[in-house]
User: Fold this.
Amino acid sequence: MAVMNVNPTRMELTSLKRRLVTARRGYKLLKDKRDEMMKKFLNIVRENRELREKVETLIEDANKSFVVARAMMSDAAMEQALMYPSQKINLDVDIKNVMSVELPVFKFSFENEDESGMYPYGYATTSAQLDESIKALSQVLPYMLRLAETEKSAQLLAAEIEKTRRRVNALEYVLIPNLTDTIRHITMKLEENERGNLTRLMKVKDMMIQQQYNAKAQQG
Assistant:
């Protein structure tokens, strides 16, 4: 790993040690966040798969009924029956915070909760298969909204997981090793300087002792 271009001083060494403690703490927090988001992401993906299968089944049933109804009714009668929808839906979009990620929440309600309100036509001129198709489409709507909610949540979580993963890798494989190597390098440099200073002091001491010895010898 690369050693940072810093002055090998004790002040710099203290600063780098503080940065290393902060980096390790941040690494642990980000790693825990990434792991927790992965659990939530996998749960959403499993729910998304189940919802998609449910939606596809209901839409397939609705299409089958509609094809039969279309065969039994004229184009003019079909167009007249479906021209003016009688049911209205209120949709509210909210946001929930999951691990610092804002995920959408869809809430809806029918203006007319009565089941008969979903049919925009009279029963006299239409077939039972058209009723079944309209009912199947009405039943699939909540699942479709929940499916859209889970798919968007999965996309947002996946993007945040990838961002967090890059940060974790940068800390684990770049910043923390660089800080560790730089601290080791500065520590060795300071220890080497201390040994050099100690050697010089010992030489100075020996010289002073020798001078004192020589002075006493001349006096004697």
Summary: The radius of gyration is 38 Å.
